[in-house]
Design brief:
Shape: globular
Number of helices: 15
Strand order of the largest sheet: 1-2
Structural class: mainly alpha
Length: 358
């Protein structure tokens, strides 16, 4: 049966594809231009750019970490709570325990990885929705953070923290904050993992259609646990950087990073490769949010504008991510289906939608 002209025309929309893929980077450039014209003396300066990169590096890292489980169709809502516990634990071990800072950082990162693995086990073997499971484990982490700190801040003594420890966040390289290079390195590593290695391709198949992944022999539980473990590792690393930035342990600070992280991850799935979460898209989305927040702040907006901006951006991100995913499925349905054994093949879409798909 010959497809209708409307269905045949779906894949042949190069202009629409370009707008979908590169509309978000264009928006970032447009926002920067608008704020530069509105604030010509302060916004388009190297100091301001450096400040934006420094302030948004931890949200960017956390957004990249949140992207990993989303690739498999899952959500990790414990990342904000894990960030709070990780940065408190680093300072607790250094200040109260007297540990060498490299050892304290390593233990916290490994602990984050272990907890991420536990999240994956609970979701996959407990058959609990990832949204509910990680919200529950995150609340436990928050309680544990309060127990460790007694609800009070951890403040270093008169000698302060080791300079080598604070330098992992405060120092600069080639005129830019060193934390910027962490973000770029992590984005490059995730791009390589998701786009060029079989592990990432299997995760995409799982996120697109879990039943199809099982039919072709992909161990879906194992790779989903890998995704949560990767998220936990990134959260542990972000906690180390947050401790070096704040230099004071605040038991409630991590929650503030949860919403921006998911806004970046979900909005990123509408850019570069619309319809699928990807590291470069997340990086672009974080840039849009960073420029918008910096410009709003410098224009003298009230404090409530920032959560309003984040909330509206999340709603837009979820809506656009759902639209991009549906459009990708419609386009894929008009193309010849290849063998599921091929890593890059589009999996069948006749099964139940994966968990967390908008």
């Amino acid at each position: 049966m010959t497809p209708s002209p409307s269905r045949r025309s779906l894949p042949d929309r190069p202009h629409g594809h370009l707008i979908g893929a590169y509309g978000l980077p264009a928006l970032a450039a447009l926002l920067f231009l608008i704020f530069s014209l509105a604030l010509p003396n302060t916004f388009p300066t190297l100091d301001n750019v450096s400040s934006i990169l420094s302030n948004q590096s931890i949200p960017a890292i956390l957004a990249l970490g949140a992207t990993i489980p989303i690739v498999t169709g899952k959500f990790d809502l414990s990342i904000g709570f894990g960030l709070g516990l990780a940065h408190v634990m680093v300072l607790q071990l250094i200040v109260e325990g007297g540990w060498p800072w490299p050892l304290a950082c390593l233990v916290v990162i490994l602990g984050g990885t272990a907890f991420g693995t536990l999240n994956g086990v609970i979701v996959e073997f407990g058959r609990i929705d990832s949204f509910i499971a990680t919200l529950g484990t995150g609340s436990i982490l928050y309680a544990f953070t309060g127990w460790i700190t007694g609800g009070a801040r951890i403040v270093p003594g008169a000698g302060g923290l080791p300079a080598a420890f604070t330098d992992i966040y405060d120092s600069k390289f080639l005129g830019l904050p060193v934390s910027t290079y962490y973000v770029l390195a992590l984005a490059a590593a995730l791009w390589l993992l998701l786009e060029r290695l079989p592990l990432g391709r299997y995760m995409y198949v799982i996120g697109s259609n879990t039943r199809a992944a099982e039919l072709v022999g992909i161990p879906t539980r194992r790779y989903s646990i890998y995704a949560f473990a990767g998220s936990g590792l990134v959260v542990g690393f972000a906690g180390v950087l947050l401790a070096a930035q704040q230099q004071i342990g605040n038991p409630s600070v991590g929650i503030d990073y949860l919403l921006p992280a998911f806004v970046g991850a979900l909005l990123g799935s509408t850019a570069i490769k619309p319809g699928r979460p990807n590291a470069l898209g997340t990086l672009v989305a974080v840039a849009v949010l960073a420029i918008g927040l910096a410009g709003i702040g410098q224009l003298g907006a009230d404090f409530w504008v920032i959560p309003l901006f984040n909330g509206a951006a999340l709603l837009i991100a979820v809506g656009l991510a759902g639209y991009s995913a549906r459009r990708r499925q419609r386009v894929g349905a008009t193309q010849p289906r290849r063998s599921p054994a091929e890593p890059s093949a589009v999996p069948p879409t006749d099964g139940p939608p994966p968990e967390g798909t908008p």
